[in-house]
Design brief:
Layout lengths: L2 E6 L6 H11 L4 E4 L3 H7 L5 E7 L8 H8 L4 H4 L3 E5 L4 H9 L4 E4 L6 H6 L5 E6 L4 E3 L8 H6 L3 E11 L3 E12 L1
Parallel strand pairs: 1-2, 1-3, 3-4, 4-5
Antiparallel strand pairs: 6-7, 6-8, 8-9
C-alpha cells in the first residue's frame, strides 16, 4: 500500500514496537516512530496517505499536544490523516477522550484478524469532518438525526468538510463549507 504509518507513543515497552510490527505486516510502504509534524509533512510528499497509530499510554491527555499538532497542520495530507488509538482494553472514558481529541477510531487489543478491515475503513469513501472552536475531527453526531436536527442543535461558527482518502491521491477535500448557526 502506498501509505505511511507513524507510530506515536513511548518506544520502550510493548505498545509502539507492536504497532510498528503490525504496520509492517499490513504492508505500509513506510513505517517509523513519529518524530515531528514537519517530518510527517515531508513524508506525505512521497506517500500521499499517512496514518498515525497511537500506542496505549497511561495518561491519555499526554497525547493531546501531538493530536492537536496533527489536526492543526497546514497540510491537508496531515490534518485529515487517520489517527487511530490502540487501547489496551475497551474503556468508555478512553473512547470519549479520543473522540474529543479528533481520533478517527479506537481499536482495543487483541487486534485479531479484523484490524486490517478497521484500518481500511479510513480509505476510499467520503467522510465528514467538523471544525469548531474546540474540536476538529470526524463527525461524531447522532447518525440517526436528520442533518437539519443535528445542525440546529449546535450554535456558533463551524466548518464542515467532506473528504475522501486514497492511497493513490492522498486526501481530497470535496467540500469546505463555513456555517454560522444562531
Amino acid at each position: 500500500m502506498n501509505a505511511s504509518a507513524f507510530v506515536v507513543g513511548p518506544q520502550s515497552g510493548a505498545g509502539a514496537p507492536a504497532l510498528i510490527e503490525l504496520a509492517h505486516a499490513l504492508g505500509f510502504a513506510k513505517v517509523a516512530p513519529f518524530g515531528t509534524r514537519p517530518a510527517a509533512e515531508k513524508q506525505a510528499m512521497t506517500t500521499p496517505l499517512v496514518f498515525f497509530f497511537f500506542a496505549a499510554v497511561g495518561n491519555l491527555r499526554s497525547l493531546k499536544p501531538t493530536a492537536e499538532a496533527i489536526r492543526q497542520s497546514r497540510s491537508s495530507a496531515i490534518r485529515f490523516a487517520p489517527m487511530i488509538y490502540f487501547a489496551r482494553k475497551p474503556d468508555l472514558d478512553i473512547i470519549r477522550g479520543c473522540i474529543r481529541m479528533g481520533f478517527d477510531d479506537v481499536i482495543a487489543v487483541p487486534f485479531g484478524e479484523g484490524v486490517n478491515e478497521r484500518i481500511m475503513r479510513q480509505v476510499g469513501h467520503m467522510q465528514v469532518y467538523y471544525e469548531t472552536e474546540h474540536y476538529f475531527g470526524p463527525d461524531r453526531r447522532d447518525r440517526n438525526a436528520t442533518r437539519q436536527e443535528a445542525v440546529s442543535s449546535a450554535a456558533g461558527e463551524y466548518r464542515r468538510y467532506e473528504i475522501v482518502r486514497s492511497a493513490e491521491k492522498g486526501i481530497d477535500v470535496l467540500h469546505d463549507d463555513f456555517q454560522v448557526v444562531v
